[in-house]
Each structure stands twice: as structure tokens, then as C-alpha cells.
Amino acid sequence: MDEITFTHDLLDWYDANGRDLPWRQNPEPYAVWVSEIMAQQTQMDRVVGYYSRWMERFPDISTLARAREEDVLKMWEGLGYYSRARNMLKAAETVIQEYGGVFPAEFKTIQSLPGVGEYTAGAISSIAYGLPEPAVDANVLRVFSRVLDMEEPVRGKSGKGRVEKVVCSLIPPDRAGDFNQAIMELGALICSKRPKCDRCPVQGHCKAYMANTVHQRPVLPAPQKTIRINMVTGVLVHDGKILIQKRKPDDVWPGLWEFPGGSIEAGETPQQAVAREYMEEVELSIMPEKKITTVTYTYTKYRVTMHCYLCRLDQAYREPVFNEAVEGGFVLPEVLEEYAFPAGHRRLVEYMKSAEYFDTLS
DNA sequence: CAGACGTGGCC
DNA sequence: TGGCCAAGTCT
């Protein structure tokens, strides 16, 4: 591979074919940081809408630093990996308190911010500050596993180290950010899972292409198996209001809101499970009155089938005791919009709205 | 270091 | 449909 030609061919292609993403017009540190955190484990096409809404709500880092976690999570609702949002809030507070409100410009300092790892620090350093740092993400690993025709697992320490070294040797000092973005753009648009080698600007530099091994690269570890689980949730209606609770820290979906519920245990019917969960979680005796719908969703390695029931109190009214939540209460259906729910529960809310469940509560 | 952490889209 | 995958980080 001729380094100079490779970089030149790649940048020419990027200049002509790079997507017009909103933060590329003015890559200032805050905008780049926001976009890079949102892009972690997320496809760019999904990021754009969230990015625009975020920048409208939190236009600069001091506005973000002053925000409530509740509002930050609401802006993140549906994107997943919510620790990213909570870490951004922490990082914003750090920048205000420790760095006088100025986003740090040094690789090590950038990486020390919560939620910013090696990749993201490299991306911000190069894109916002023009520093010649590598930014090696899954795209970059895939591209170079093919360019170098790597037989070793590219995610392993040695494989990743090899790619980093090559990237460092290729970065043009005057266009470090563009180079890093160009490799990722190539990985996203051309050198993807189903590669489009006929349109590749660096085809002539690609060892796997020449060896006809493109489809065997990258060499990846065996994937995790998905685990199927059955769960229940209950929408408890009392006096025209609905019970919701806020999930605890150090659990899945920390800080997000939900309807009480849980796993169906062996030998249990879904209805029994709802009643048991209500007793355990909020110490209320309830009656599952009507099956609303079944929502299926996946999170990490789980595929969840969630049976959803409309419930009534089976006892005189009394205050719920939140054993499995930091707080909770009965709210009017129209304000459910204001709370951040995990995707499965959000879909249940949307279903109930569309089926006009909320029009007849009493 | 392996496992946890979300979600929607694709084939 | 079910498994794979996407601009990773943290513990």
C-alpha cells in the first residue's frame, strides 16, 4: 500500500461523497462531542434527528450543565445506552467547574471526561482540534481488516494495535479530522457488511480484494446468543390516573420511568405474575382486569415478550410503597409524554393512545 | 477481560 | 422470522 496515494484517494472520495451531517458545517468541540457520544453503537441516520433536537434544547455546554437529569434522559429517550446521557451531564458539569466552561483541547483531558473513551477522545481531538490522533471504531477496524487482509481477530488487542499503527502512519497532519471521518464514512457507505467494492476509492490498495477474501473479513468473535424471556407489566388505573415509577440506579434503564412489572415465574400465569409484582414492588393488591396488548422488544441479549394488563385496585386506596424504585406516583395519562420510558413501555403508551384507552379512564 | 448496557433496521 | 449489526465505554 502506498500511504500517500491511499490517503489522497480516500480524501478525494470523501470530499465528493461525504454526507452533509449537521455538525460538519461547523465542527466546534461541543457539537462534535454531542454527535460522537450519540453515534456510539448507533447508526448515523438515527443520530441526526436526536442531535438537532438536543442542540435546540441544550445549545451549549453551560446550558447542558444546568439541565436536570430528568430532562436530559427525556431528550435521549429511544436512543438506548442511557448512561451516555447521564455521563454527558456529568461531563458538562466537570467542564464548567474544572475547566472554566471551556471544552478541553488535550487528548488525555478529553478522554478523562465520563463517557469519553479512546475512540471518542480521538474523534474529538482530530475533528474539533485538528490533532493527528487516530479514531478507531468498528468501521475503521472493518476497513483495515480488509485493506490489510487480516487473518487475526481484528477486535483483539493485537489486531486493534496493528490497525491503530497503520492509521497513525496514514493521517495527514493538515486534515486529521477529515481523514478519520473519511475512513468511517467509507466503512458506513462502501466497505460495509455487504461491501460495494466496485465503488470503492481504495480498491487498488485492498489486499483482501486482490485475494478475493473480502467476505471473510473481518474475523469476528462468536456472537452471544439471545435469550428469550416472558415478562408482564400492569397499567394500574385509579381515579383517572396511572401509576408509574422511576427505576433505580445500578439497574437496567436507571432513571427511566415504567409501569410496575417483571418476569413470569415458573408455574405462574401472566395475571398472577402482575399481581405478585404489584405486591412486591409497590405493596398494592391489584386485579388484572383486561389484557391490553403484547409488546415484544429486545435489549442487549434479551428478546422480551411483555404481556400488558389494565389493572384496578383490589383493595381500598392506599399509598404505594416503592420497594423497587426511587420514586413514583399516579399521573394523568396526558403527562406520560413528559417522562422518559424504555422503548417497550413507550410503545405500550403509544398503543394505548392509538387504541383510545386513555379516553375512557375513570 | 468478559459481560453489561438499548434500540431499530436489515435481510 | 431471528440473528446480526451500528462513529464504544465502563467495570
State the total count of DSSP E strands: 7
Order of helices and strands: HHHHHHHHHHHHEEEEHEEEH
- The N- and C-terminal alpha carbons lie at a distance of 72 Å
Question: Structural class given helices, strands, pairing?
Answer: alpha+beta
Radius of gyration: 24 Å
CATH fold type of the largest domain: Endonuclease III, domain 1
What share of the residues does DSSP label as strand, in percent? 15-25%
- Nearest-integer average pLDDT: 95
Low-pLDDT parts are none
Largest sheet: 7 strands, mixed
* CATH architectural group of the largest domain: Orthogonal Bundle
Number of helices: 14
Number of domains: 2
Catalytic activity: Hydrolyzes free adenine bases from 7,8-dihydro-8-oxoguanine:adenine mismatched double-stranded DNA, leaving an apurinic site
Enzyme class: hydrolase
Keywords: 4Fe-4S, DNA damage, DNA repair, Glycosidase, Hydrolase, Iron, Iron-sulfur, Metal-binding
EC number: 3.2.2.31
